[in-house]
Write the structure tokens for this entry.
Amino acid sequence: MARPLRIEYPGAFYHVINRGQRQEAIFDDDRDRERYLSCLGRMSSLFGVRLHAYCLMTNHYHLVVETPEANLSRSMQWLNVSYAVYYNRRHQCAGHLYQGRFKAMLVDADTYLEPLSRYIHLNPVRVELVKQPWKYAWSSCRYFVTTTTPPDWLDTQRVLMGFGRYRKTQRRRYREYLLTSDPENPSRDVVGGLLLGSEAFSEWARSTFLSPREKDRAVPALESLRPRPTVETIVKQVAKHYQVKDVDIRRRGAKRNQPRDVAIYLARELRNRQGISCAI
């Protein structure tokens, strides 16, 4: 069975999602939800992770997790096993509670933390459980827009700091931010199902954490996400091989320009598979 590709380092942020087996419920009632939140608090205490947003739906959950100690896999394994053991015992079930390993997208917090929190908090509104997201009892939204004190393991300030200097202003502006529109899912911008961030952030993560890894058949996503050479690098190498100038390769309209044809072919093969611009 293929293993998911993980990037872990101190201070990383993740959007974590998991769903019930065959899309079935993982929370049957409020007692289950209360237990899951208790497990979140326990996980934070045991592993030092920080929660920046959460939403518990009937058959899946969303978490925004920060790992100061680069321990996402160990933390989430503990959380999922602890809750699954409780759930199966209480409901007299057997087998897997979740459909598979959890999905975790590495997030560029400077760019995507605010829109990601908004998207997560609006989940109950999109399925018409509530009209106002802070009225949904099983998300962190009310801690962002009301004076309700959040649990110790939930950090609201990292998101709210972008909405003003004072707490009252932050709450008001974040509420307005929620109501401005129903945003698109930020996950549409995810690269390779793993990286949610600017192009510079994605390139940094790929070159820093994926390039040094050896090929692993059990992790097929690794090869597709390895850093690809830039167009500039391709042009320079082709120019060197054919002993021509870079400008000769970039010149359009010239007939029988084999170096240019080769550079275009290589750019398409090596870059375009990742949806990266390959214009020469």
Summary: Residues 216-222, 273-277 have pLDDT under 50 and may be disordered. The first helix runs from residue 30 to 47.
